[in-house]
Design brief:
The protein has 11 helices and 8 strands. By secondary structure, the chain is an alpha/beta fold. The chain has a single domain, classed as TIM Barrel. An 8-stranded parallel β-barrel has the order 1-2-3-4-5-6-7-8, surrounded by 4 helices. The longest helix has 21 residues. The two termini are 24 Å apart. 42% of the residues are buried.
Length: 293
C-alpha cells in the first residue's frame, strides 16, 4: 500500500440521472447536503450504449450549477462509434467539464457487436488522442475481479492497460472484504501502477436490493453479513444500524491501511453516507487532489 499512502485523501460520491422532475428535485437537495462535506467530486452514471446520455448531461450541469462541486460524468463506450464519443467529448468540453469516468459499459440489449470500442483502454486512449490533458480520467477497478473475467491474472493486466493508456485515477467496484482491496493494490504495485486506487463504498440499507445488485455485478457479500442481514427480516431499522456499523468499520480499516480516499455509491440518498461520514469523524476539507483537476 506504499504507492497509495503518498496520495492526498480524496472523497467522492456517485449519483444516477433521475427519471422524473420529482427525482431531479430530490437529487438537487441530496447534492446540496453532500456538497457541505466539500467532496473532491461527484460522479454521474451513464446508461448502456449511452441510453441516459441526455439525462446524464442535464444532471451534471444541474449539480455543477447548484453545488459548485466538480462533476465527473461516466462515459461508456460499448456499442458506440468514435464519432459518437467525439460528439459527447465536445459537448462536455463546451459545458466546462474536466473530469470523466471512462468505462467499457454493458452491451445494450439486442446488440450483438460491441461497436468501434471493445475495451475501456481503447476509450481512454481515444480521449487522450482527441482532447490531450483536458480531462482528468478515472477508470474502474475490480478488487474481486470483473464478473466477466475468465482469468484473475489477465483481469489485472487489463486494468494495467487502462492505466498505461492514460488514466489518472481509479475507482473500485464496491466490496465488503478489505483484504481483496489490499491484495489487488499489492498486485498492481508489483506491475508498476502508480495512480490512486480509491475504494468504492456501498452503504447497506436494503438487503434484497443489495443482494440483487451484488449478484449482477459480482461483488461478494460475505456469508456472515448475508446471514445477519437475513436474520433481520423486514426490520429496516436493524438492517440500517448493522449496515452502518459494518461499513464504518470497513472504511476505517481501508483508510488506516493507506487507501487514498473513499468513493461512496450514494444511490441518490444523503442519510446513509452522511451517517457513515459522521461515524468516521471525517473532516469537510477538500482533498488537495482537487488542485490537480
Amino acid at each position: 500500500m506504499e504507492s497509495q499512502k503518498k496520495f492526498p485523501k480524496a472523497f467522492s460520491f456517485e449519483f444516477f440521472p433521475p427519471k422524473t422532475p420529482e427525482g431531479a428535485e430530490k437529487l438537487r437537495h441530496v447534492g446540496a447536503e453532500i456538497a457541505k462535506l466539500e467532496p473532491c467530486f461527484f460522479s454521474v452514471t451513464f446508461g448502456a450504449g449511452g441510453s441516459t446520455r441526455d439525462r446524464t448531461l442535464a444532471t451534471v450541469t444541474d449539480i455543477q450549477e447548484h453545488t459548485g462541486v466538480d462533476v465527473a460524468p461516466h462515459l461508456s463506450c460499448i456499442g458506440s462509434t468514435q464519432e459518437n464519443i467525439r460528439s459527447i467529448l465536445n459537448t462536455y468540453i463546451k459545458a466546462d467539464v474536466r473530469h470523466l469516468v471512462a468505462l467499457r459499459g454493458d452491451m445494450p440489449s439486442g446488440m450483438n457487436e460491441p461497436g468501434e470500442f471493445r475495451y475501456a483502454n481503447e476509450l481512454v486512449a481515444f480521449i487522450r488522442e482527441e482532447t490531450g490533458d483536458h480531462f482528468f480520467i478515472e477508470v474502474a477497478a475490480y478488487p474481486e475481479f470483473h464478473p466477466q473475467a475468465n482469468d484473475a491474472h489477465r483481469d489485472i493486466e487489463h486494468f494495467c492497460t487502462k492505466v498505461k493508456a492514460g488514466a489518472d485515477s481509479a475507482l473500485t467496484q464496491y466490496f465488503y472484504n478489505a483484504d481483496a482491496y489490499f491484495r489487488f493494490v499489492a498486485d498492481c504495485e508489483r506491475r508498476g501502477v502508480d495512480i490512486p486506487i480509491v475504494p468504492g463504498i456501498m452503504p447497506i440499507t436494503n438487503y434484497t436490493q443489495l443482494a440483487r445488485f451484488s449478484d449482477a455485478c459480482g461483488a461478494e457479500i460475505p456469508r456472515w453479513i448475508r446471514r445477519r442481514l437475513e436474520s433481520f427480516g423486514d426490520d429496516t431499522a436493524s438492517i440500517q444500524a448493522f449496515g452502518q456499523e459494518v461499513i464504518t468499520q470497513l472504511c476505517q480499516q481501508l483508510l488506516d491501511g493507506g487507501a487514498p480516499g473513499l468513493h461512496f455509491y450514494s444511490m441518490n440518498r444523503v442519510e446513509p453516507t452522511l451517517a457513515i461520514w459522521k461515524a468516521l469523524g471525517l473532516s469537510s476539507n477538500k482533498a488537495e487532489r482537487n488542485k490537480k483537476l
